[in-house]
Structure formats: C-alpha cells, structure tokens
Amino acid sequence: MIAVVCPRIWAPATRLAEIVDSCPTSLVTVDTCLLSVILLTGGSSRRMGRDKATLEFGDDTLLTFHLQRIPRTFPVVVVGEPVDTWPQVTFTREDPPGAGPVAAIASGLEHVSTPIALILAVDTPFALPQLLRFELGPESHALIPRDPSGKAQYLAGLYRTDPLRYALQQLGSPEDKSMRELVCHLLPIEYHELSPEVVHDFMDLDTPEDLVIARELLASQPRVRP
Asked: Model confidence over 172-191: pLDDT tens digits?
C-alpha cells in the first residue's frame, strides 16, 4: 500500500464530517491524504471468551462492520489475523503476538505514511463517525476522548504519527507496556470531554452482555445500521 503524505498537516480531520453524515453506512470516496486508520483486533478477549473481530455484528463480523465504514481513500492497517476478502487492507501483527496494544500500535505504525493516524480498537464499534468530527489542534500530539467518569479512551483517538514514533522510541520495547506509559512521552495531549449523549458511541465490548447492548443500539441507530 502506498500512502501520499499531504503537506498541509495542520488541516483538521473534521473536514470529513459532512461526508460521513451524508453516507454513514458505506464506503465513500474522500479527497484527503491526512489520515490513516490503524484498527487493532488482537488481544486475549478473556471476558468475551472468543476473538472479538469474529463476533457476529450487523450483517457480518465486527471486523467487517468497521472496514465497511472507513472511507476508501484512507490507508487502513489492521493489526490482527489477515482476512483474504480485504486485499486493499494491510494486515500485520504485533511482535510477539499478544504483546499488548502498544506493541500493536508500533507494528501498525510501520505501515503508515500519513501525518495523522486514527487508532481504533475493534471492540469500539460506534466511535468512527464521532472521531472523524474531532479536530486535532495544531499544537496537540494527540486528541483522546474522555468519558464523564474521567476514563481516557486511548484506543479511540487521533494521533500525530511523528510524535507517536518518537514516543515509542522513548518508551523502549513496547511489549506489554500500557497506553498510559506511552502517552507520558506524547505531550501535549488534548482530551475531548464526552457528553452523556455520546458516551455510548465509545462503549467497549468487553463481555457478552456488552455485545447484547451494542446489538440493541445498532438496531436503534440508523446512522450506524448496516
């Protein structure tokens, strides 16, 4: 996959909001070279009891649900098991497999050439439209949502790729490192305070009970219905 780097890295990612709103449930062509998507699909999924990427969601799997909603001009890197039906997507694995989200990000970033990366965990199915509305400030190295309880959603945010590479270098080996350890080397960070109305858009599917709730939300929200 070849990504062309746009020199206007100060431009906000939120220019995509109108396109996302007008066609929220299918791939659309977007004229941008600012942003790549790194979709993280690994993890042990102990509480869910199975690989989350393969969960039935919408008309197919949770992985397919995500990939069908990413605008097609974005380079997409999936960190996880490869799927033959998506030849336009770059698949890679963290080293070693199961080494955690920081190692997965490091692996995905090796295949990214754009100045901004949208990092998203596969178990956060509704966050993409919201993230594409966010504006990453010119002085910020990352924009991370934070819910009303103060929990930061590190795996559903926008990151400038050069500072992120530097943070990974400062961290050393990414194996089994936490996202909190990584972002300590990524300052300044901007936090987007989530209102109660959009908190469900950033829900994580950690348990079978969470999956039931997400399927109910999927059926009641046309903007994310397949």
From this structure: 999 999 999 999 999 999 99
Residues contacting residue 98 through CB under 8 Å, at least 6 positions apart: 42, 43, 44
Distance CA 97, CA 103 (A): 9
Which tokens in the block code for residue 204?
Answer: 């994580």
- Fold of domain 35-224: Spore Coat Polysaccharide Biosynthesis Protein SpsA; Chain A (3.90.550)
Tens-place pLDDT, residues 108-161: 999 999 999 999 999 999 999 889 888 888 899 999 999 999 999 999 999 999
Inter-residue long-range contacts of 92-99, CB under 8 Å, 24+ positions, other chains counted = 93/42, 94/42, 94/174, 96/175, 97/42, 98/42, 98/43, 98/44, 99/174, 99/175, 99/176
Helices within the chain (DSSP H only): 17-22, 62-67, 101-109, 128-131, 161-171, 179-183, 208-220
Instruction: Report the chain's terminal Cα–Cα distance, integer Å.
Output: 27
